[in-house]
Amino acid sequence: MVCPCGLLTRQEEPVPLKSISVTLSICEFVAGVSATLNYENEEKVPLEAFFVFPMDEDSAVYSFEAMVDGSIIKAELQDKTEAHANYENAISQGHQAFLLEEDDCSRDVFFCNVGNLRPGSKVALTLKYVQELPLEADGALRYVLPAILNPRYQLSDSLLGDPVAMVSFYPNIPEAQPSAACGEFVFLMDCSGSMQSPMSNQNKSQPRIEAAKETLILILKSLPIGCYFNIYGFGSSYEAFFPKSAKYDQRTMEEALRRVKLMRADLGGTEMLAPLQAIYGGPSIPGHPLQLFVFTDGEVSDTFRVIKEVESNGQKHRCFSFGIGEGASTSLIKGIARVSQGASEFITGRERMQSKALRALKHSLQPVVEDVSLSWDLPQGLSAKMLSPEQTVIFKGQRLIVYAQLTGMMPPAESTGGVCLKYALQGKSFENKVAFSLQPKHDANLTIHRLAAKSFLQTKDMGFRETPASDKKDVLKVSIECGVISSYTAFIAINKDLNKPVQGPLVRRDIPRPFIFCAASMPRLRGGGAPLEASSCPDVLQPRMSTHYLGPDKPHALGHKKKKEGVFLQKTCLMMDRPHPPTNRTNLEIHQPVFEDNHLVQLISLQKADGSWDLNEGLALVLGMKLEDIQAALPLKNADSSSWATVLAVLWLHANGKPMKCEWELLERKAVAWIHLHAGSARQVLVQAAITFLKSPVDPAVFAL
Q: PROSITE patterns given for it (predicted)?
């Protein structure tokens, strides 16, 4: 359900957010954002407004200030309990006060209390944050402006007093043969009411639940023979396809496909903890490590409990998580992947869920990279203290970022250091080395320090209620020292310059999170642009970007195919997911299957679990030919018709489905392997005859003849 745009009262009456301006700067793969939210109290009574806004889970909020009728009030970061007491005390004395804090249950939602806003008063809240930019499969960097935006501090003596290194690796992991242990694959699919929403705001955009069903069909066809699998649909309740994970064969695949085609977005809200506990509570299958795939378009009320549940089972599985649409919680999606050494993806705008899910499946089928270690080569008297969690898993084509605090005596400016990433794959050892200058770069905003602090906090901070007592002290210390908000701190700003208290009782205004920016309209970053700013009314944001570059190398295009490894040193210088009521499921069996107009999905749905196709009317329909003509073209009368059908299907995929190859590549590999195993000496004759029959331009080399 889409909430009306802008700031609203409980009765959906407008409240005083007048405009927003955003300044964005990008250096290498780090973004710096400054956002100003302009308010005006147009009512005749003083207001205490409550504004809720989302932000990427990786964002390090470091500055928060307010301009009230021309006077600037800078906030300081305090212990949350102390900040709340100071806020309430300021309000009771009639002072203007502003309180910014993380949600107790999730670190990607922030609350801003705007207290004692006098009638006619104008306030501009400025929030600043930095974040890493995610890397796309094709090497492009991507920035998505959240639905609404984000918080600063004085220089301290510890983490901010030492140089900090940000190390970026792009390991060139070679292709490897899949391991013999296939694995247990469990797919947890969101079936809440919001999954009926379209994938994007584009015309004729596919409903999320239909994209999810196509994705599951592709996955089911791509699984390896001999593995185990299960599918759970969840919302306010959950349903499993099988009582326990079933062995993958033709019978179980067909049963799963039947259930997938009947899936609907009718399970109410988004409650993930119970199905996760059911999955983890089942018996492990010897020789088949658990691989969990989670798909959701919303957020849960107990984000930190969910992350903690995944983390407590992290040693026996990997979790691949997918956020669907602009409303998915980055804290949830990134958190459950991070603590299980998996990977996370977000699907927004016109992006296809299918391609990102299949890419993750490929990663899950790759042999595990083992013995990952990082070693530093630094001058005597200088050492590196790691601020990032220990990395134990690396995937091909992905970036690895780590942060380290350099302590001790800094050498002369001309000195250099080095860092080496080592790992093993299928018994072979590999390493990547990076050399760097030990002269830090000056940055008044301390961008790398903020990101390093955020990385540390992500490891230790599990929420106000879930963080172990042993970690709370470190979380509070680093958060206060570095000015980066956490579950235990809040920004507070108090205007004590007013000569008289605000008169009259405060009227409370709760402001639901508005949906004011669609990620579909935000371009992916591939190069520089003119420096600009953006300002808008609340219902539309049209950001203009300024792109800058750091480092000794010459400027290069963001997202260039040549991926860089490097070290960066720095001086001390809406969519509201409202639960939909469950619908009556008695008519489930008459729900019509979809995908009728998609020949690619039709062809894939006809494939058997072992990778082959049968020669039948369904295949003839996809090929656009009569079944009798296909049968008559069989070059060898004693040849197996399934071999002939499978060769034709593979050729059709290469000729007609090339733009989506990443989605059918795994099932095509399975088909080619089946042809090699069953067609025998007739393989080459069948391939040449099929190319001639279909008048296909496809190179026969795709069959590895």
A: VIT, VWFA
**In this model, does residue 617 exceed pLDDT 80?**
yes
Mean pLDDT of 559-564: 42
Question: At 285, is the secondary structure helix, strand, or coil?
Answer: strand
Residue 348 has what DSSP assignment? -
Q: Are 296 and 322 in contact (CB under 8 A)?
A: yes
Count of CA atoms in the C-beta half-sphere (13 A) of 370: 8
Q: Which candidate, 234, 241, 311, places its Cα nearest to that of 280?
A: 311
Taking the alpha carbons of 347, 352, 354, 360 in that order, is the dihedral positive or negative? negative
**Of the candidate ranges 70-79, 158-167, 365-374, 542-551, the one whose mean pLDDT is the lowest:** 542-551
Coil vs helix vs strand at 114: strand
What is the per-residue pLDDT for 303? 86
Computed on alpha carbons and rounded to an integer, the radius of gyration of the chain in Å comes to 28
Q: How many helices (H) and strands (E) does the chain have?
A: 15, 27
Estimate the crossing angle of helix 641-656 against helix 683-694, to 10 degrees: 50
345: left (phi over 0), alpha (psi -120 to 50) or beta: beta
> What does 178-234 look like in DSSP terms, one character per residue?
PPS---EEEEEEE-SGGGGSBSSSSTTPPBHHHHHHHHHHHHHHHSPTT-EEEEEEE
Give the helix ranges, DSSP H, for 319-382. Answer: 330-339, 353-365
Indicate whether 275 pLDDT > 90.
Answer: yes
| Cα 625–chain centre separation | 43
Tens-digit pLDDT profile for residues 179-204: 555 789 999 999 998 899 888 777 77
Tokens, residue 445: 């905003």
Strand order in the sheet with 400-408: 382-386, 400-408, 164-169, 566-570
CA atoms within 13 A on the CB side of 532: 9
Contacts of 163 (CB under 8 A, 6+ apart): 405, 406, 410, 440, 569, 570, 571, 572
Residue 135 — pLDDT band, cuts 50, 70, 90? Answer: confident
406: phi then psi, degrees, rounded to nearest 5: -90, 115
Identify the residue whose tokens are 């070059």: 635
Q: Are 644 and 614 in contact (CB under 8 A)?
A: no
Task: Give the tens place of pLDDT for each residue, 339-391.
Answer: 888 889 988 878 888 889 998 898 888 777 778 888 999 998 899 988 887 77
The interaxial angle of helices 353-365 and 661-678, nearest 10 deg, is: 50
52 or 58, greater pLDDT: 58
Which long-range CB contacts under 8 A does 227-230 form with residues at least 24 apart?
227/182, 227/183, 227/184, 227/185, 227/288, 228/182, 228/183, 228/184, 228/185, 228/285, 228/288, 229/184, 229/185, 229/186, 229/187, 229/256, 230/185, 230/186, 230/187
**DSSP state, residue 389:** P
- Complete DSSP assignment for 615-661: -SHHHHHHHTS-HHHHHHT-S-TTS-HHHHHHHHHHHHHHHH-GGGH
Cβ count within 10 A of residue 681: 7
Average pLDDT over residues 72-96: 83
**Cβ proximity of 518 and 349 under 8 Å:** yes
Q: Are 44 and 118 in contact (CB under 8 A)?
A: no
Distance CA 63, CA 60 (A): 9
Sign of CA dihedral 387, 389, 393, 399: negative
The C-alpha atoms of residue 622 and residue 614 are separated, in whole angstroms, by: 13
What pLDDT digit, counting tens, does each position of 420-466 carry?
999 888 788 888 888 888 877 777 788 889 899 888 888 888 887 78
Longest dimension (CA), the chain: 100
Cα-Cα-Cα-Cα dihedral of 395, 401, 403, 409, to 10°?
100
The residues facing 421 across adjacent strands are 374, 432
Report the alpha-carbon distance of residue 351 to residue 324 in Å, rounded.
10
In which element (H, E) is residue 453 found?
Answer: helix 447-460
pLDDT for 18 = 76
CB 142 within 8 A of CB 525: yes
